[in-house]
Amino acid sequence: MQLAQEDRVTALSFRTDDVPMMATANSEGDVALWDLDNKRLMHVLQNAHDGVISSVDFMVGQPLLITSSADNSIKEWLFDGNDGIPRLLRSRTGHFAPPQMIRYHGDDGRHLLSAGRDQTLRFFSVFRDAQNTELSQGSLERESRVRHARMSALRFPAVTQFASNTAMSRDWDDVVSCHQGSRDAHSWSVERKSLGKYTLESSDSSIVRAVAISACGNFGFLGLASGVIEMANMQSGLSRRTFVGHTKAVTGVHTDACNLRVYSTSLDGTLRIWDFATGNQLHCINMPSTPSHLIVYRESSLLACACDDACIRVIDAESTRIVRTFSGHRNRITDLAFSNDGRWIVSSSLDCTIRTWDLPTGYMVDWFRVESVPVSVAFSPMGDFLATAHMDSVGIFLWANRTQFADITLRQINPHSDGSTDGSVAGAALVAMPTTAGLVDENEETVEDVEMDAVYMAPEQLTDNMVTLSSQPKSKWQTLMNLATIKKRNMPEKPAQVPELAPFFLPTTVSVEHQFDFGTSDAANIPTDPTSSKLISVSSESQLARILYNAHTTRVYAPVFEYLKTLNPSAIDVEIRSLPVDDQLKALKAFVCATTCQLKSKRDFELAQAYLHVFIAVFTDIIKANARELEPLLAELRNELKAQWDTVDNLIRYSACMIEFMRTK
Q1: pTM score, whole prediction
Q2: What are the C-alpha distances in Å from 69 to residues 45, 47, 55, 96, 532?
């Protein structure tokens, strides 16, 4: 018997549940079902897969057919009809071409959206593989059968950029995408896992290069190759406003958290800030190099641009100034991502490195090298995972954030520390890519050991101009300032009374009748030595007084606060109250000088305030009686205290004004 099928046959299998049937697969992704009794073709599953089918297998004794293909999918077909034609029961699919862009969808960090070169937009669950699916582009299978064309020819062009927002997911579409070489942008609904209602067309027929969705989820933005930015309503699909000013193609567009500003970058080398309501340009910042990527951290109005000179520049949208510049990548930067708290920026590059930059310090604090070039990165909104996509892999890789479950000391890393001049990055550790096989053996080393010159210790103060607080718990200085109230509250209403003690054996008198002797005990008749004393000799100087005397002599007052930090609130109160007031108030003068010196160092601000509060409360009368002698030291303390408190008060008032401004606007 000889049967023929179109194209090259790549796999075959026989049904084993007493039905004479054979299934064959070819290189075009079709599955043919043959009736062996009648030697004829029963049915052809056209475009069952989008690639070469590598395996077909009937389950033993069951009407189930399993097919797998090079399109990164496995499908299970069920024969439950009388006509012998199977239906798709379940499937597991993924990208069959490397993804180009990945982003977390939602604020819970449980879902990812991914756009690949296979012209698909897919939805992935971080925890449940059963939820992974492709966002439908319509009835492509039916159209492919009618038109006798492959489904890849009917799909949209590959997605080059997309944006999502879950604020209005239950009401209308929540994803917008632009496509390679396309003049249209498309809306999608993650709720329905399908293409949305509207196609957003560019007004001047130019290619859409960038997209964004506002924080409220009501508006979508299209950045065009002509330099124009268009705003459309996501509910109706109608155009609402245009932003005109760029002279070349737009590379990135974003909005702030309150729909007040629109940010955009362009190939004309500028970053522009627009008024959301009117479309007028507010600021234009000329970048040192052409920006290719733009991301925004809405909570702090910080913008990060990846430029063509392989540098990352961070711009403060309020002051419109470049506040940080990170350099170190040896090749073009492919993607950027803010951490969930806005403290880090994670960047990927064509030099195969993924680097972490610390915004407060301006240093690179972590980097590692991978074998495959990373093309996209996304930081989880919960801060637990970093997702990456790579140039020659169809998977999405998750990296655990070790600072979430271990004590990690971040140290400053020189991005040029390897000293190479040939463009290599030998200084970064080569890390093996995560796999689906589970966790690796703990005894196996997966990261190359990197020698460290010394253990990095975080500085107590970043700069000398900052007023910093201590690392002591807040309850410590709060308890110290309210110690008298706490003691009064905890004092019992009546003192505890000791019960009368009686001896176990009572003495008896020597007589015929049994009588107890209630006379004085022998212990009461023991003569006492008039020279002995029940008072315990104590030293007249406390430990704090000795440290103050030594500090007053050496003019080094740091040990005073170091000693007080080791004590509990009650011990601190006792030490301050025990300061001697003789010897020309030497101890009190030394304490005032120590507090002034601590304020000048701008460290432990709240502790200095608490200690000074207790000191003044205890020695108020003595300070008044010796005001003339203590006046120079107290005047210096008052001036320094006022200067430091003015700095802190201005920061508090500025923050309060910003919060009020954000709330009212």
Answers
A1: 0.66
A2: 14, 11, 7, 10, 101
